[in-house]
Amino acid sequence: MPAVGPRQIRGKLSFNDLPDGLLRPGSEASVGVRYVVEVDGHVSNCRATESSGYSQVDWTACRLIEQRFRFKPARDREGNPVRAAIVETHSWYIREED
After folding, report:
1. Do 71 and 8 touch, CB atoms closer than 8 A?
2. Would you say residue 23 lies in a domain?
3. What are 15-68's pLDDT values in tens digits?
4. Domains held by the chain: number
5. How far apart are CA 13 and CA 65, in angstroms?
6. Less CB within 10 Å around the terminal CB: N or C of the chain?
7. Does residue 73 lie within any of the structural domains?
8. Residue 11 in 3-state DSSP?
9. 37: number of CA atoms within 13 Å, CB side?
10. Which domain holds residue 51?
11. CATH number of domain containing 61
12. What is the structure's pLDDT at 59?
């Protein structure tokens, strides 16, 4: 286990990342993901651990996390960068139209 965990320095997901027309107003999608932060801060091996129910959302989330997210890597007790896994959930909520 790292002495210091990874810290995200770049990247985010947004509503605009969802495929057009996939979610209707009043609906939501949440996808649980697990990925590895490498010693150079880039992300690899992203996979959905809890599906949103929409395979396209699951796939898009992991693809964009690997492309966009960058981290200061985790460090061991001697201060050396080490690989670390992250498990988190990303959610999108589509508001009802007025």
Report:
1. yes
2. no
3. 888 877 777 777 788 999 999 999 999 999 999 999 999 999 999 999 999 999
4. 1
5. 8
6. C
7. yes
8. coil
9. 24
10. 7-11+29-93
11. 3.30.2420
12. 94
